[in-house]
Design goal:
By secondary structure, the protein is α/β, with parallel strands linked by helices. Helices cover about 45% and strands about 15% of the residues.
């Protein structure tokens, strides 16, 4: 058996196993409540159908695995995003808006929506000009005075690379969940700070030794897919750099030739102008023929 203590939560398989089990939903409830304000705390959850396989494939590597709602109707979408995407934020807005539109009702209360919360766990940083980088970025609908205009849509972006607390610095539940998500694949024991529920439950669920043979195969298939995706991305970057370098050299060579040709042409015109002047041709005529105004 390979020397692995815990599964990788960055993969489709790992994330679903830890946070997407109906029987162990106390883990997801704790994670959500570590983010949400008191007025939005969750006591129970019902898991809903996640995106289809085709939809996941079309989402360019996004793990859109957890979609659930509370007894009072609030929807929660939780997604792990491995790779940087230029339109990632726009896509999250689309997901959230779609979860709102799916609630369309008939009758007088057609627009009486329950709130939708999107939680994006990002293994990269998304810089916004003019804003200081934050581990947790909270986005909601507010007016120009910073007052919440509507509570129907709220987005949370967790940027794991910005989280740098050590084990002895973990204070809040959110600290612990961020540490768990960022460092779980490299841990070989459960730190003492996680001894209480539901954190100990999360570590128990994530133990590789608890997987059956089929689950182990699924785990390694997910790891292999993630590695291949990274390799494809890195190869594309290297190929793009090489192509750019080659194109730059070709452009430089062409520009050099053109510049040399232009310099040779200018020198030839100057020589012609001098000979015309020596032959007594008026300067006005020389300028009209060669473009040179002074000799």
């Amino acid at each position: 058996m390979p020397d692995i203590k815990y599964i990788n939560p960055y993969t489709d398989f790992g994330f679903k196993r830890i946070f997407g089990q109906e029987a162990r939903k106390n883990v997801l409830i704790s994670f959500l409540n570590s983010l949400l304000p008191d007025k939005h705390k969750v006591e129970d959850l019902q898991f809903m159908n996640t995106a289809s396989k085709r939809a996941r494939e079309e989402s360019y590597g996004a793990v859109f695995d957890v979609y659930c709602k509370s007894p009072s109707g609030e929807r929660f979408i939780v997604e792990m995003q491995q790779k940087r995407q230029e339109l990632f934020v726009d896509r999250t807005v689309y997901y959230t808006a779609r979860a709102l539109s799916e609630q369309m009702k008939k009758g007088d209360r057609v627009y009486d929506f329950d709130a939708v919360y999107f939680i994006g766990i990002m293994n990269f940083t998304h810089r916004i000009e003019g804003l200081a980088p934050r581990v947790v970025q909270v986005v909601s609908l507010k007016n120009q005075d910073g007052v919440e205009f509507s509570d129907k849509m709220r987005l949370y972006f967790l940027q794991l690379p910005l989280f740098d607390k050590k084990e002895n610095e973990l204070v809040s539940d959110l600290d612990k969940w961020l540490y768990f998500l960022k460092y779980l694949p490299g841990l070989d024991y459960m730190p003492e700070v996680f001894k209480d529920e539901p954190f100990c439950d999360a570590f128990e669920i994530a133990e590789y030794a608890a997987l059956n043979e089929m689950e182990q195969l699924a785990h390694f298939a997910a790891i292999d897919e993630m590695a291949r995706n990274w390799d494809t991305l890195n190869t594309a970057r290297k190929d793009g750099f090489a192509e750019g370098k080659e194109a730059g050299m070709a452009v430089g060579k062409a520009e050099g030739k053109a510049e040399g040709k232009a310099e040779g042409k200018a020198e030839s015109l100057l020589e012609t102008a001098r000979k015309l002047k020596e032959a007594g041709v008026p300067m006005e005529t020389i300028t009209r023929v060669t473009g040179i105004t002074h000799l």
